[in-house]
Specification:
single chain, alpha+beta, Hypothetical Cytosolic Protein, Chain: A, 4-stranded mixed beta sheet, two-stranded antiparallel ribbon, 2 helices, 8 strands, binds zinc ion
Length: 103
């Protein structure tokens, strides 16, 4: 029974398991009057609520967006507009999961 080097989380992008410290935690901020749902980086990993863990890489972020992993993992219901934090910033989605970004 080895392999116990501390807590492990699953990346919602590539689905690989990795040490907590290698992943970034994201949580949902309360929906404001504009009805926009914002996902924020939880750098301290101490914010309350459901968290989604993701490698700090564009590939994993794109994968997570394509398979709508943020919505599923964070249980974001309905048609709310989803805003993700920077991390490869310029990327924008058109709602169909098409990621448009400069190469
Ligand atoms: Zn990943």
């Amino acid at each position: 029974m080895a392999e116990g080097d501390g807590p492990v989380r699953t990346c919602i992008g590539c689905r690989a398991r990795d040490a907590r410290g290698a992943l970034v935690r994201f949580v949902v901020a309360p929906v404001g009057d504009d009805g926009v749902c914002r996902v924020v980086r939880d750098g301290s990993t101490k914010l309350p609520g459901r968290g989604a863990w993701l490698h700090d890489s564009e590939q994993c972020r794109d994968k997570a967006i394509r398979r709508r992993a943020f919505r599923r993992t964070l249980r974001i219901a309905g048609d709310v507009e989803l805003h993700l934090p920077e991390l490869g910033d310029a990327a924008g989605t058109d709602g169909d999961g098409h990621v448009t970004k400069p190469v």
